[in-house]
Amino acid sequence: LKAKYLAAIATAADETALEDVRVAALGKKGEISALMSGLGKMEPDARKAAGALLNALRDEIDAALRARKSGLADAALDARLKSEWLDVTLPARPRRTGTIHPVSQVMEELTAIFADMGFAVAEGPQVESDWYNFDALNIPPEHPARQEHDTFFMNRAAGDDRPPHVLRTHTSPVQIRAMTEQGAPIRVIAPGRVYRMDMDQTHTPMFHQVEGLCIDRDISMANLKWVLEEFCRAFFEVPSVELRFRASHFPFTEPSAEVDIRCSWEGGQLKIGTGDRWMEILGSGMVHPKVLKAAGVNPDEWQGFAFGMGIDRLAMLKYGIPDLRAFFESDLRWLRHYGFAA
Ligand code: PHE
Predict the structure, then answer these.
(1) Contact 188/153 with Cβ under 8 angstroms?
(2) Do 314 and 106 touch, CB atoms closer than 8 A?
(3) In Å, what is the CA distance from 82 to each residue of 13, 68, 76, 85?
(4) Would you say 255 and 285 are in contact if contact means Cβ atoms under 8 Å apart?
(5) Which of 144, 236, 282, 306, CA to CA, is 20 to 30 A from 253?
(6) DSSP 3-state assignment of 107?
(7) Cβ 306 under 6 angstroms from ligand 1
(8) 118 C-alpha to center of ligand 1: Å?
(9) How far apart are CA 241 and CA 229, in angstroms?
(10) Whose CA is nearest to atom 10 of ligand 1?
């Protein structure tokens, strides 16, 4: 009996098999347990001798079971440690991280540059009433500038009596909102999205502008010129820039000027600051008295300048990117090529 069980214990492959052996030998209905309950019917002397033998047998088998059990547990642990082994010295797999989009980056840069000159940031909605987008900026309904803006109009169901709305065609309506809210004096920029029905290599239906507005008691075009030169020097990171003011026309400024920056274009390389070319970068002028009035600012007391600049254009110039449309296609290969994504 002893040899039979010790052999079974030694060959039990795992803890379940071992438990079966234990039940067969020492369980309630086990072989050895049965023998022990038979002791009661024996003569006292025979019982004493057999009892001692059975007790010793039981203890020996019990000890063998325990030893085998802890041996099996150790082996299982060893196997697990082997299979789940981890080399913590392996180099980590490279991980791709997100980066800031060039347009967002340029917006952050220019916001910081203008902040140094005392300009706060103002905001307005992208879905704008046509009063803010046009009328208040001295563009009445019959004005030809309305057609030139290639406007997206918001659809209105029959019977909808809300004022007509458009996708703002420029950031200039933020001039009106900022002056109405804060009055004068005021010094703000308003970066944001604008929309026009236009699509080619240098135009997308959505693009970004930054508006500038500076109103005080004796602000002049000279202040405008200095602010723009300071901005361009800082933004393009060149020691000096030359700007050219060309007389122009905007309904909301008088006088008005379009501003070009001196640059060169050699061997496919654009250089800002020197050269024999001029590139248009913005529209500007002295805020029209009618515009001040529409925003509740007294034109007999206050005056100042405004300008509007294309942000995407600035980003293209700064990073030498030829096609504007690629900015908004979210093509990772393109973004990586220009170093805008990891
Ligand atoms: N809003 C004009 C445009 O979109 C730019 C501009 C802004 C011109 C402010 C003058 C003053 O073209």
Answers:
(1) no
(2) yes
(3) 19, 21, 10, 5
(4) yes
(5) 236
(6) helix
(7) yes
(8) 21
(9) 7
(10) 284
Ligand 1 pocket check for 304: Cβ under 6 Å: no
Chain centroid to Cα 207, Å, comes to 19
Nearest residue (CA) to ligand 1, atom 9: 307
Distance of CA 142 from the midpoint of ligand 1 (Å): 19
The Å distance, Cα 308 to ligand 1 centre, comes to 4
How much of the chain, in percent, has pLDDT values that exceed 70? 100
User: Over 80: is that where the pLDDT of 242 sits?
Assistant: yes
Atom of ligand 1 nearest to the CA of 171: 1
| Ligand 1 contacts CB of residue 251 (under 6 A) | no
What is the amino acid identity at position 176?
Answer: I
Q: How does pLDDT run across 79-129, given as a tens digit for each residue? A: 888 888 888 898 988 888 888 888 999 999 999 999 999 999 999 999 999
Q: How far is CA 237 from CA 19, 107, 234, 274, in A?
A: 80, 16, 5, 13
Of 170, 258, 287, 291, the residue with max ligand 1 atoms within 8 A of its CB, to mutate for a pocket test, comes to 170
> Could you tell me if the ipTM is greater than 0.90?
yes
Instruction: Say what the pTM is.
Output: 0.73
Q: How far apart are CA 91 and CA 102, in angstroms?
A: 31
Beta carbon of 68 within 6 Å of any ligand 1 atom: no
Give the mean pLDDT of 228-253.
95
State both tokens at 271. Answer: 């250089």
- Residue type present at position 201: Q
Contact present, 196 and 149 (Cβ < 8 Å) = yes
Single-letter code of the amino acid located at 47: R
